[in-house]
Every structure is written in C-alpha cells, then in structure tokens.
Amino acid sequence: MDKDILLKQFKEYQNRMAAFRFAMFHISWDASTAAPPMSASYRNRMLGILASDNMALQRDPANIDMLEKISQMDEMDALDKVAASKFLKAIRKFEKVPKEEMVARQQDTAKAQKVWEEAKKKNDFAMFAPYLAKNIEHNKKSAEYRGFVDHPYNTLLDDYEEGMTIERYDQFFGTLRSDLVPFTKKVHSEGRKIDDSALYQYFAKADQRKFLEYLAGALRYDLKRGMISESAHPFTSGASLNDVRVTARYLENYLPASIFLGMHEMGHAIHSQQGDPAQEGKNIGGAGMGIGESQSRFYENYIGRSRAFWQRHFYKLQNIFPQQLANFDPDSFYRMANRSKPGLIRLDADELTYSSHIMVRYELEREIMSGDIDINKLPEMWNDKIESYLGVRPQTDTEGILQDTHWANGSFGYFPTYALGTAYGAQFYYALCNDIDVEREIANDRMEVINAWLKDKIHQHGGLLTPDELMVQATGSSFDPQHYVRFLKEKYTEIYF
Questions:
Q1: What are the pLDDT digits (tens) for 96-108?
Q2: In 3D, which of 10, 112, 107 has the Cα closest to residue 64?
Q3: 296: which of 267, 402, 485, 496 fits an S-S bond (Cβ 3.0–4.6 Å)?
Q4: Distance CA 7, CA 84 (A)
Q5: 247-262 exposure pattern, b = at least 16 Cβ within 10 A, e = fewer
Q6: pLDDT: which is higher, 103 or 217
Q7: Catalytic: which of 117, 161, 162, 265?
C-alpha cells in the first residue's frame, strides 16, 4: 500500500480514537463534578455504547493490519511509529478479553462509582460490597484472559507502571517498612510536640478557593488552559495540552486539605500542560502512573511543603485568613504544615505517614488478587493493617475502607504508584538541586525555572521512555528508594529533634 494512503488512514484512525477519548473525558468530568444524581442510569447506557464502538474500532482487522504496517515502516515518522506501536500494544493487551466483558466492566465500574459515593456518605460498606465484588471479578478475569507471569497481580501492576511486579514492589515496600516505619514511630513518641490546632479553625470555602487560585499562579498552572472545580475526591483530567482540569476538596474545618491536595492536582496538570505538542492526539501517553504521581507529589511535598515556599507565600495566606493566622509567621506555619501524626485518612496524611497508607492498600490488593477472599471481611482486614502500621484504628467504614475511589472505578494496581511516585520525587529533587539553587528560586518566586528543568528532564518526553529509562536519563542513575528515606529522615529530624 502507498505510504501516503497508509498515513492518511492512520491519521483518521488517530483522530477518531482521540475523539472517543475526548468524549469520555467530558462525560467522566461531568459525572464527577456537575451532573444531577438521576442522570447516572442514562449516562451509563451511553457509556456502554461508546465503549462498544471504541472496542469495535480497535479490533477491526483492517485497522490492526494498518497499525502493524505503520509500526514496521522504516521511512515513517518516528512519533507515528511509536504511536502505532502503542496502539497495537494496548489492543493486544486486551485482545483476548471478550468484547462483552469489556463493555460490562465499563458499565459496572460506572455503577460502582456512584454507589461508592452514596455508601461513603452513609458509612455503609455492605451497600458497596456487591459492586466491589464485581470490580474484583472483572480484574481477575482480565488477568486470566490476558495471561500473567508468576502472579495475576503482576499484569495489573504493569498496567500502571511498566516493568513493576510484586517482587519489585515487595522490595520497595520492604525498604520503607524497615527504614521508615521505625523512624516514624520514633518521631511520634520522642519528637517535640507541634501544636497545629490553628489549622482546624473555620476557613470559609470561598476564601480557600481564592487561595487555590493564587497558588495556581504561584506554581504556574495556566488557568487559561485549565480550571479548578470541586469533587468528592480530587482528581485531574485532560483532553489536550490546552484543556487540563483539576478538582479540589474543601474542608472548612481543616485548611491544609485544600492547599496540599490542590497543589498535588496542579502538579499533575502542569506535567500535562508541559508535554510536547508534537505528541498531542497521537496516543503516546505518559511514562507511567508512578512517574505521573512523582510530579504531583513533587509539587505537593518537595515544593509545597518546603520552608522556602512558605517564606514566600505565607503572608498571602495570612492576608486571606487574618484572624485565624494572626499569631503565626512563615516558619511556624511551615512546622504546622509538616506536623506528623498517625491518622486514618490517606488524603490528609503527612509526608512521613503517607506511604504506610499505601502499604495497607498494596498488601490488601495482593491478597485479593492471590485468591478468593471474603469481601465482607475486608473492612476488618483494613482496620487491622492500619492499626498495625499507624497505631490508630478506624471506627467507621467512611474513615476506613470507603475513603478512596480507586476500587470503585476498578483501578487495582494503581495504589502502589502513589508511594513509588513519591519516592521517585526525592531522586528527582536531589538531581534538581544539583543543577539549580531550588530554595533561592522558590523564594524569588521563579517557579518557571524549576518548571523548565522538569519539562526538559521529564515532562516533554511523555511516553517515549519507560519509567526506568526516564529515571536514568533525568538523574543519572537507576531508581534507589534510599533517596526518599534520606530526604524524610533529614527533614523530620530537623523539625522534630
């Protein structure tokens, strides 16, 4: 077939696939932010139709043949070849999964998401349990249909971070368990006491929203190409480099929730906004969820919880909340913002305890995927693990197993990337510090300098590199979680001892 004809077919295919993603993006965004409650049933039927049509397009033998030719043609543009290869990889990943199963999964997860929201409000795990059981069944079926090496969970882990396995995650979490858990307990039992009660006053939602908009400017999240909305569970979603949206969660009795979760989501958004325009619409994707989380956690913690950041931006916050923060200065706020104590809610966890929350979820997912498990015992298993790692025990399902949306939307294998990405962030941070005086640039309100480094080393590459390749290229060495251990020990030793 003539190259020009083949390329035209490929461009048409890419555009149609991009249109499906665009439509699904808007439907999902609307469902989580503005859609009326009674709209769910009709929306789920429409999602089923879109999912079915999308699957038919992907599995059309003529399209598969076209993608194979594009990926093997030497004279084809390099990005087109990569895009075709990625389309093929995605198709082959699920080609053994029956179309009916794929559509049923799409519809069941949409139902589960809405039931989870209601169950969380009502503190009723039993209400959600049947839907969770279906989502677990879909994930197990997927691993069985697709095949796996050594363990079905490995297939799901690799979906979110290429190359990751139970063996690698066990080693990673083993390091955190042996090096950080004892240190965390020492901080909590022997460290100086930090009174952060000032953060639990009344903070009006409208004023918190005003400060988040200020933070968007401080971090250089471009609101001409994005927006800040509100949802029960903060998330980031995008249709293009010029449409990357975030949501926030406002707690009027706890100020840090909106600030740091807001910066987390803005980190995701900046990562997307700084992507290579040449890759847009081509299905290149990103390096992996761990790399993606490394950027959100980077802005949230390595930038947002730094002393330099609050030396620069505290007085703006104080100006918005003059009565609540009248008796504080940048250093005292920095210490309050970095207070560590065992808690029940992952989204509100401090840097030091955060990875313990992820270990709980990882270990439960590993057990779930290892064999049959009594769904009704999961809340107790959850509570036991939280108590073991953090010394506190959930008293309700809402503050325990129902707090996260991931299992509702069927994302098994996603949770570990949060801890992995946070640890990646430490290695990126030290590499950045080798090239740039980070504290000086933050203090001088020059985030564009830091953003430029991140764009050059990480953001612009998109999915052209694997996580392992990107880490070596950006930092000069393979991933080593000891960078993360070092960062936390040095930071919290200074704060607490």
A1: 999 899 889 989 9
A2: 10
A3: 267
A4: 11
A5: bbbbbeebbbbbbbbb
A6: 217
A7: 265
